[in-house]
Amino acid sequence: MSSTLLSSLKALHVLAAILFVGNVIVTGIWTAIFFRARHTHDFRVAARAIVLTDWLFTVGGGALLTITGVSLAIGRGYALWGTPWIRQAMVALAISTVMWLVLLVPAQRIMLRPSFGDADDARLVRAYSRWNVAGWTATAPLIYAVWCMVAKPG
Length: 154
Fold this sequence. Notes:
Elements: H1 3-36, H2 43-75, H3 84-111, H4 118-151
Helix pairs in contact: 1-2, 1-4, 2-3, 3-4
């Protein structure tokens, strides 16, 4: 693989990591702001934005991150599972992805429901709380994966 192609893949890999991890962190912050204003603003707007940005940046960025990461590893002659820092980053990404699918997506579906009157506000609070805690917990392995890519621990 040429050095130009490797450099291009590396740039795309870094861009994908920025989009992916950045979206995860920023979404948690601005959703907290919208959640606090849910009595004066329609929180479903924020919930729809979560779903949209998840598809664009979390899924899209994650796919680009994975494709460029595997391509870089193969292009540079690294064994995917045999290189400790690559394996650790892949496991961290897998853990975060499973948490997203199992915990975050179901909570998002509840937050998208058409109406939350006073009686339903408790259900929204529970869904948002679950989404918030699971989301920040699922972010920790992503931060660890970024650290693995930079520090390359043995």
